[in-house]
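Handout, section B. The chain below has 242 residues.
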Amino acid sequence: MPERKPTETLRCKVKDHFESIAPDYDSYKQRSRYYHAQLKALLIELVPDHREIVILEIGCGTGALLAHLDPKAGLGVDIAENMVDLARKRWMDRSNLRFHVGDAETMADQEIVDYSNQWDAIIMSDVIEHLYDPGAAIASIAAVARPGTRVIITWANALWEPILHVLEALHMKMPEGEHKWEDRRTVSALLTHNGFGIEQEGTRCLIPADFPGADVVNRLFISIPGIRRLGLIQYIVAVRGR
């Protein structure tokens, strides 16, 4: 995988990419609807009390995942203004949701913490691979978390990279732009270094398309040693210590 470029250069590339694809973002997700249904189901499983808590989602896009979780109060943050504009319009009737423009790396420095130090859960889904400084992002998340805050991070398994490149070339998935898929050990180390304890980690979604039998395979085979490392969706659940 390519080395990360200087942070400001990479930040501009990532921001420009997501600003440009914002008008087509939801249609891309519709093309990958089975994958996104699997992702939503995983988040519901990992955050079973989602309707009763305060959630911060970093890299919220147009807000569909946060709206699906439908928390007591939710704040979605995204680096792309066009994404945030679409999220605000799409979910304007949901008084429990707010959306703001911001970077994961500078969360602690931004005036967007409507529920400062009250976050029950912080979610970052399919985002960490696009961050210009993952270490700074995790440190920033730690700064706005309180003891007991759960952090849920999901991202694509690098083993799938060749397949995902083909799907992107065939316009069957959203173009990723600049990215680097970190391995789980790296993400886990960043979390523990910043005061989080790892509660759960693993993979899901062996088959990311609605083929016959996909639900059965995804439900039953993911627990088999040697097979479970092949899941497309990697995830880590961590809890902020005192």
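Note. Residues 1-5 have pLDDT under 50 and may be disordered. Compare this with the example in section A.
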